[in-house]
Design goal:
The protein has 12 helices and 4 strands, in the order ααααααααββββαααα. The chain is mainly alpha-helical and 315 residues long. The longest helix has 17 residues.
Length: 315
C-alpha cells in the first residue's frame, strides 16, 4: 500500500524540520522529526543522514551510547564520504566522555579514522589542517563526564530461570504439573514459592501490538521505543534497536505481488493454515487485508475483493 511505502521526499522534509528545531535548540522536537524521517527513509543516504543527525541530538542530551549506535548505523548505511570525519569526530567525543580504557582506545581509533576521512572532505587546505589539529588534541580537551543514561537499558534480554522444570522448561522447578480426570491438566506449587520468585518465562506463540501503541513500542519485543529504528521494507513498523530489526527481518517471508486479492482467495479455497510468526510480516500483510473493502456478513462469490469477516479472522 502506498501509505506504508518509503518516501524520500517526506523523509527529507521531516529531516529539514528536525534541522530547524535543532538549530533553535529544541532537542525534543528535533528528535521527534528525525524519528519520523527515519520511518520514511529508504536505505542509503536518506537513512544514514537521518541517523547521523539524530546522533547529534543524543550527544547534546548526553546519551553517549545511543549517539554511538546511531553513528555506527549511519556509517554502515553509506554515509557520504565527504562528511564522515564529522560523525567520526562526534563518536570519538562520546567515547572520550564516557571514559574507561576500552572507550578511550576506541576513541583514539576514531580520531585516526576521522583524520584519514578529512582527505575526502571538501574543506580547503587551511581548514583541513586546522580540523586535523583539533582532532589530534580532542582527547586532551575532554574529560570523562557522567551521561544521562543507564547502559543496562540498552540490553534487552529476557530473565532466566535458575532451575527449570525437567519436562516443561518454561516453568521453574517450583511448579508441578498435575492431571485429573474431568479437570484436565493444571499447575500447583511443588514447593514453597517465595515472594517475587520467578516461576515461568515463555515467549508468546503469537503477539500483536494494540493499535494505540504502534508508535511507542517495539514491534518485535514490545519494549518502549527510546531510539526507534524503522522497518527496512515499510514506514509503518518500528523496532527498538538493531537486534530486534535483524531478528524480525530474518524471519520475514515477503509476499511481493500486486495480485494480493487473488492470493488470499487461493489460500481460502485451499483451506490450509498460514502461519507467520514475524510481526513485521503480519503487520504489512494485515494492512493490505484491512484495505480489501467493507466487511460483509457473508462472503461474496461475485467479487474477489470481498472476504467474509470469519474468513479474514481465520486467515
Amino acid at each position: 500500500m502506498k501509505m506504508c511505502r518509503k518516501n524520500s521526499k517526506i523523509s527529507g522534509a521531516l529531516r529539514e524540520k528536525g534541522n530547524l528545531s535543532y538549530a533553535q535548540g529544541d532537542l525534543d522536537a528535533a528528535l521527534q522529526f528525525y524519528n519520523q524521517a527515519l520511518q520514511f527513509a529508504d536505505t542509503g543516504e536518506d537513512l544514514s543522514t537521518a541517523l547521523a543527525n539524530r546522533s547529534a541530538v543524543w550527544t547534546d542530551k548526553k546519551r553517549w551510547s545511543l549517539a554511538v549506535r546511531d553513528i555506527d548505523l549511519a556509517l554502515d548505511n553509506n554515509y557520504p564520504e565527504g562528511l564522515k570525519y564529522k560523525v567520526l569526530e562526534r563518536k570519538a567525543t562520546c567515547l572520550f566522555l564516557k571514559g574507561g580504557q576500552d572507550n578511550v582506545e576506541e576513541g583514539k581509533r576514531c580520531v585516526a579514522n576521522a583524520i584519514e576521512a578529512l582527505k575526502s572532505s571538501k574543506l580547503t587546505d587551511g581548514k583541513r589542517k586546522a580540523k586535523e589539529g583539533q582532532l589530534e588534541n580532542l582527547k586532551d580537551t575532554l574529560k570523562p563526564e557522567r551521561g544521562n543514561e543507564n547502559e543496562k537499558s540498552l540490553v534487552f534480554d529476557l530473565p532466566k530461570l535458575k532451575d527449570t522444570h525437567e519436562q516443561f522448561p518454561s516453568f521453574s522447578s517450583s511448579v508441578a504439573v498435575r492431571y485429573e480426570e474431568g479437570r484436565g491438566r493444571f499447575c500447583v506449587a511443588a514447593k514453597k514459592i517465595e515472594i517475587g520468585e520467578l516461576i515461568a518465562v515463555e515467549t508468546p506463540f503469537v503477539a500483536m501490538l494494540d493499535r494505540s501503541e504502534v508508535r511507542s513500542l517495539c514491534w518485535h519485543c514490545f519494549r518502549a521505543l527510546l531510539s526507534p529504528l524503522p522497518c527496512r521494507k515499510c514506514s509503518g513498523v518500528l523496532f527498538c534497536g538493531p537486534q530486534c530489526t535483524d531478528i524480525a527481518t530474518s524471519r520475514t517471508v515477503q509476499l511481493l505481488s500486486d495480485e494480493m486479492h487473488s492470493i488470499l482467495q487461493a489460500c481460502l479455497k485451499l483451506r490450509e493454515p498460514i502461519i507467520r510468526t514475524n510481526v513485521e510480516f503480519l503487520t504489512c500483510s494485515t494492512r493490505q487485508i484491512w484495505a480489501l473493502g467493507p466487511w460483509p456478513t457473508e462472503p461474496s462469490r461475485q467479487s474477489p475483493h470481498h472476504i467474509s469477516w470469519i474468513d479474514r479472522i481465520n486467515l
